[in-house]
Amino acid sequence: MTATVGAGRRAEKPTLDVVAREAGVSKATVSKVLNGRTDVAAGTRERVQDVIAALGYVPSTGRRPREVPPTVTVLFDAFVDLYAAQVLSGVVSAGIEEGVDVVVTHLPEGAGPESLTPAWFRGLAAKGHAGLIVVTTEIRPDQARACAEAGLGLVVVDPVSIDPTTTAQLVSVSATNWAGGVEATEHLLRLGHRRIGYAGGPPASRPAQQRLHGHLAAIGSAGVARDDDLIRMAGFRYEDGLAMARELLALPEPPTAIVAGCDASALGVMEAARHRGLRLPEDLSIVGFDDTYAAGWTSPQLTTVRQPMREMGRVALRTLLNHARGQRPETHHFELATTLVERSSTAPPHP
Q: 177-308: which CATH number, 1.10.510.10, 3.50.50.60, 3.40.50.720, 3.40.50.2300?
């Protein structure tokens, strides 16, 4: 007499769906393990293999189902600026070229990076997504590990707080922020400015710190004494630039020029200068960073440091897709060159 499994029920043959569900991973991850792919974390591979053994799963040798296009998730902290829009444009255009579906999401309002739990990453993998592109959103080393353990690739654009050189699971894409800070300040020095204010991004932001360090390096190389009264670090928003410029312009000896951490905060600097009745650029020169569309819409048009935002998005998408194909990245940290774009918001200081 043949034994049956369960209360008189016929034993069901385990499927790929069942294996993926029991292991808490996507079907794509199970397939990678079955095919001996090397781009699966050791812990994830072992868990999948244990489930396969426990269920007695045997892969089908029949005709494979039609392959569906891979899906990539892009995560933002919020959709509030032109920088994010231009990076996303690059991701989407590369996705169209590569036949990849792009899903865009953002952190819940008021939620911090702690919402990116291991369960969140496993849920993403269970939907069959190939990986995650994170843009200007804080991600911790333990979260990078959780992402890898879920079988997902991870690429971070402009990492906020994590050092990409110390986290093996992380591939990052950014611009040459330090060099851009140097370019912005050297431009003003060449025009003859010596009292240059700095209105930068959040102190905890790596790109903001790199741009500040480039600014300070240019000041030092020119033999100009560092004056900490001229340095403010608050944020990348319009409101941050407005507040920082008000403080700088209220100094007993205000700056004749200001370097802003990004284009959005540079617009706030412009507004603060107008509130004080200053002429731009005759009384105050201003340099931004990014070269978003808004830089050419201001009056005067904004001199700024261009970072290749669309190309950063394209590189991120292609790097993630190569990871899903089992290819190792050429480097774990891509840096794309910045260039200074001179417009009419800068001029020699007024005599």
A: 3.40.50.2300
